[in-house]
């Protein structure tokens, strides 16, 4: 567990399980606190992970998707090399 204390009123905590906790400053606006929390979640990749795990994906589909991405990267690299 990693804890960062920016000041005595606010604490941000990161667990190994990607849990994020934000203690707002005293008198801080709710919208500001919510925006900071969303930013923390985005920086830690929690939303991306949630979207990826929302539906079950067969291992063969994952492999197929990775191969497709790899082929597209190779094609792009070849186009870039041919242009020089």
Q: What's the helical proportion of residues?
A: 55-70%
Main sheet attributes: strand count, strand direction, barrel closure: 3 strands, antiparallel
Overall pLDDT confidence: 81
Unreliable stretches (pLDDT < 50, length at least 5) are 1-8
Strand content: 15-25%
Please work out how many helical segments DSSP would assign.
3
Order of neighbouring strands in the sheet with most strands: 1-2-3
The total tally of domains equals 2
Distance between the termini: 49 Å
Briefly note the structural class of the backbone: alpha+beta
- Give the tally of β-strands: 3
Order of helices and strands: EEEHHH
Shape: elongated
Report Rg.
20 Å
Report on this model:
- The protein has 84 residues and is of the alpha+beta class.
- It has two domains: 1-53, no CATH class; 56-84.
- Helices cover 56% and strands 17% of the residues.
- It contains three helices and three strands, in the order E-E-E-H-H-H.
- The chain has helices at 30-44, 46-53, 59-82; strands at residues 2-7, 10-14, 20-22.
- It is elongated and about 60 Å long.
- The termini are far apart.
- Mean pLDDT is 81; it is low at 1-8.
List keywords for this structure.
single chain; 84 residues; alpha+beta; 2 domains; 3-stranded antiparallel beta sheet; 3 helices; elongated; disordered N terminus
Secondary structure: elements and pairs:
Elements: E1 2-7, E2 10-14, E3 20-22, H1 30-44, H2 46-53, H3 59-82
Antiparallel strand pairs: 1-2, 2-3
């Amino acid at each position: 567990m990693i804890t960062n204390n920016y000041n005595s009123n606010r604490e941000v905590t990161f667990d190994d399980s990607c849990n994020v906790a934000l203690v707002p400053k005293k008198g801080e606006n709710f919208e500001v606190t919510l925006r900071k929390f969303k930013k923390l979640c985005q920086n830690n990749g929690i939303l991306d992970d949630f979207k990826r795990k929302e539906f079950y994906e067969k291992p063969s589909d994952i492999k197929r998707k990775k191969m497709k991405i790899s082929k597209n990267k190779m094609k792009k690299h070849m186009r870039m090399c041919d242009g020089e």
